[in-house]
Amino acid sequence: MMAQPTASHFIAGAYAEDTAGDAIESVNPATGEVIARLHAATPAIIDQAVAAAKAAQPAWAAMKGVERGRILLRTAQVLRERNAELSRLETLDTGKAIQETLVADAASAADALEYFGGLAGAITGEHIDLGGDFVYTRREPLGVCAGIGAWNYPIQIAAWKSAPALACGNAFLFKPSELTPLTALKLAEAFAEAGLPAGLFNVVQGYGAVGAALATHPGIAKVSLTGSVPTGAKVLAGAAQDIKAVTMELGGKSPILVFDDADLESAIGGAMLGNFYSTGQICSNGTRVFVQRGLHDRFLDRLKARTEAIRLGDPLDPDTHLGPMVSMAQRDKVLGYIEAGKREGARLVTGGGVTELQGFENGAWIQPTVFADVTDDMTIAREEIFGPVMSVLAFDDEEEAVARANATPFGLAAGVFTADLARAHRVIARLEAGTTWINAYNLTPVEAPFGGVKQSGIGRENGHAAIEHYTHLKSVYVATGPVDSPY
Ligand code: NAD
């Protein structure tokens, strides 16, 4: 099943190609079939995209916010009309089950376009009265902004970055992950159809080297990365060369704390969503599930039963819960972590291996896996696995749980399940994380700021907060009398 795009890149409102770039093959991870062949951007393509963005940006910035917003709203409408087709393509490219992509990918991209489209006319500065003289501030765009995406939510990441950037009057350039290059091009088509002037949203394909070229390109004012911590460090170092603004959405090893008084089925549902959705490939996953001793055994019994009822299968079948991982390489990496868990003495509760599926013999399948008796020093409790592997750790009291939850260099997300709301707020306040939930997990509405602390990130996406990361504040001092100078 080929999903061949017209060409690899989208620049200045049209598809562009340079076959001198390294070959990229997009593989359907459920079958191992190549579904599209593309090329990485050459330096010439990158320069062309930056030049197109630079040329288009001033006129866009000079438009009224509501006019920019209207185009974003129209783009959202195009995505919603095409949700079925886009979800199918995202499923082929990522392997994620269609029941997920129908609600969480192009639909989430449309949410972002609607939210920031609506906000575009409300981006304002402030007036500061000085008793005669006064200062006003202007929220000005940064110029050309670049986004570098991960492979787990390709079109969502492209829209979460470009919608606020464009709403604020910037031009945008996006590099998808080399594993999932296709739907960003479809987003570019949707923008063009909605009337976005040429050059304001460009897509360049490529491996890490293209990302690195964007991070250091003198024509780019800001770079926003969704990726792993080691890549974040490299992009940050590149951006430091000319002091670019950055947003970093990086990895995590987030804790979920389940207290004895929690609603058992909700806590298990939250932990499963926080470990198995997207076949475990979510940065904010709560992969360290701390369960208080009084509930621990019942939690594990029900978790095992519910996990074993998860249906793996053809990702395009609407009844399938879980598709394969994004690639064989990622699956093998996760299997290595599962082996480490076994070797280091964790108790395998369920899963722990690959699955054979008829008709999908070459798919990157892996069983949803639960380990119990996990201790804080084990590899599976310390490192981000980025696959469907849950570690359950027992704890006795609140103080201990908070200390252990925080004993990690990551700080993306955290969740608390308890019926005691005073405790819920007290514990959430003490957890070192940027995005947190009480009696829920992994809900990420576009209205709420999303991002991490510690090594998990810098800056925030979504919510009003994103506006601050795609604008700078100019203060304008206005004198109303003669200059009072001693000279
Ligand atoms: P990755 O870091 O390998 O790659 C991310 C992107 O960076 C890709 O587009 C890649 O081509 C590019 N890249 C690689 N090397 C680069 C370099 N030296 N300079 C510039 N760009 C470079 O991550 P991945 O494997 O695609 O995604 C998984 C990781 O992303 C996990 O750690 C996950 O937690 C994280 N993630 C974070 C969020 C978030 O919002 N916080 C969301 C999704 C994924």
Automatic annotation (TrEMBL):
Its EC number is 1.2.1.8. The keyword Cell cycle does not apply. Its cofactor is K(+). The keyword NAD applies. Pathway: Amine and polyamine biosynthesis; betaine biosynthesis via choline pathway; betaine from betaine aldehyde: step 1/1. Keywords: Metal-binding, NAD, NADP, Oxidation, Oxidoreductase, Potassium. The modification Cysteine sulfenic acid (-SOH) is found at residue 283. Residues 19-476 form the Aldehyde dehydrogenase domain. NAD(+) binds at residues 149-151, 175-178, 251, 283, 384. K(+) 2 binds at residues 243, 454, 457. It comes from the Bacteria. PROSITE patterns: ALDEHYDE_DEHYDR_CYS, ALDEHYDE_DEHYDR_GLU. K(+) 1 binds at residues 26-27, 93. Binds 2 potassium ions per subunit. SUPFAM superfamilies: ALDH-like (SSF53720). GO terms for molecular function: betaine-aldehyde dehydrogenase (NAD+) activity; metal ion binding. NCBIfam families: BADH (TIGR01804), PRK13252.1 (NF009725). Involved in the biosynthesis of the osmoprotectant glycine betaine. Catalyzes the irreversible oxidation of betaine aldehyde to the corresponding acid. Dimer of dimers. This is Betaine aldehyde dehydrogenase.
